[in-house]
Every structure is written in C-alpha cells, then in structure tokens.
Amino acid sequence: MEFDPDAHIDHGAPLPPYRQLAGILAARVQRGDWQPNRAVPSEAHLVQEYGVARATVRRAIAVLVDQGVLFVVPQRGTFVSPKAQ
C-alpha cells in the first residue's frame, strides 16, 4: 500500500492508526526527509505532529524497525537505517 508522506492519520479508516503512521513515516524516509544514520523526530514530536498516543508512535516505530527502515539506539533515539533508501 502506498502512503502519502504528507498525509494525516484518519482515525475513521479501516487501517489502524499505527499502520497508517508507519506507512507515512516510511514514505517520508523514501522521500529523503531524513537521511540514513540520522535521527528521526522524537516520539514526543511525532505524538504532537500526528495527534496520536505515544503507544501508537512506539508501535509504528516497532513496525519500521522490524522492516529494517529504522533502528533504535538506546538512550540516543531512533535513526534511519543505512539501507532504507
């Protein structure tokens, strides 16, 4: 499924918000908003930007980590995988 990197979360859609957010963030990585080995915005920033719960952001990030798009460094943040683009 293709996602628009500029899309907003549709809480009435059949796709869960965390899946929508994961797709949007992946599309932003593909577009080049964040470069490989560089941090993505914090969980708190993504909560504010997309109007979702912190658990939703964490679940979306976990999906992208499982897909190899992002990786997490404890105490440092979430970063774009070098092989993501």
Task: Walk me through this protein's architecture.
- With 85 residues, the protein is mostly helical.
- It has a single domain, classed as Arc Repressor Mutant, subunit A (Orthogonal Bundle).
- It is built from three helices and two strands, in the order αααββ.
- A two-stranded antiparallel sheet has the order 1-2.
- Helix 1 packs across helix 3 and helix 2 packs across helix 3.
- The two termini are 17 Å apart.
Describe the structure concisely for a colleague.
With 85 residues, the chain is mostly helical. The chain is built from 3 helices and 2 strands.
Helical segment count: 3
Distance between the termini: 17 Å
- Main sheet makeup: 2 strands, antiparallel
CATH topology: Arc Repressor Mutant, subunit A
User: Class, according to the CATH hierarchy?
Assistant: Mainly Alpha
Please give the share of residues in helix: 40-55%
Oligomer: single chain
Per DSSP, what share of the residues sits in E-state strands of 2 or more residues? Answer: 5-15%
User: How many domains, in number, for the residues?
Assistant: 1
Lateral arrangement of strands in the main beta sheet: 1-2
Organism: Micromonospora violae
GO biological process, one term: negative regulation of DNA-templated transcription
InterPro entries: Bact_HTH_transcr_reg, Tscrpt_reg_HTH_GntR, WH-like_DNA-bd_sf, WH_DNA-bd_sf
GO molecular function: DNA binding; DNA-binding transcription factor activity
Question: What order do the helices and strands come in, and which of them pair?
Answer:
Layout: H1 17-31, H2 43-50, H3 54-66, E1 70-73, E2 77-80
Antiparallel strand pairs: 1-2
Helix pairs in contact: 1-3, 2-3
